[in-house]
Amino acid sequence: MKPAASSPTPSDPAAAVLATIEQLETRLRLAQLAADVPALAELLADDLLFADMQGRLVSKAEDLEAHRSGLLRITAARPLQQIVRVLNEATAVASVLADMEGTAAGQPFHQQVRYLRVWARQAGHWQVVAGHVTTVVVPES
Q1: What is the CATH number of the domain that holds 57?
Q2: Which of 12, 26, 91, 111 supports an S-S bond with 8, CB 3.0-4.6 Å?
Q3: How high is the pLDDT of residue 11?
Q4: Could you report the per-residue pLDDT of 9-32, keeping only the tens digit for each?
Q5: How many domains does the chain fold into?
Q6: Residue (of 92, 90, 93, 85) closest to 121 by Cα position
Q7: Has residue 7 been placed in a domain?
Q8: pTM of the model
């Protein structure tokens, strides 16, 4: 995976936030792969705003049900690039380019996608509060 385009130095106060978001992105990817609904529920905000590949807004409840029911089954998620921008001590944006495989509504897929996620720390906990996923039409290397 390509490193973040610009990483703060260890003495930079944003370094701790950057490290936290990088760890949370890994946890989120592993939870998606395992269809670990309790872990996903912890990582997604209750009032999540997420736009899927069709531009449809998907709620936290809908996302969790897709994983729980098997409507969405992710069998491989290979991150190719991850860029995290720390906005402040409680907000960061992550862009993740990944090679994804699985099934959606029983149909197999294998495609390169880009996620854009907004992470916010609320009541001491980091969660995804907004996001979007899109298919990469011209795969990047």
Answers
A1: 3.10.450.50
A2: 12
A3: 57
A4: 555 778 999 999 999 999 999 999
A5: 1
A6: 90
A7: no
A8: 0.88
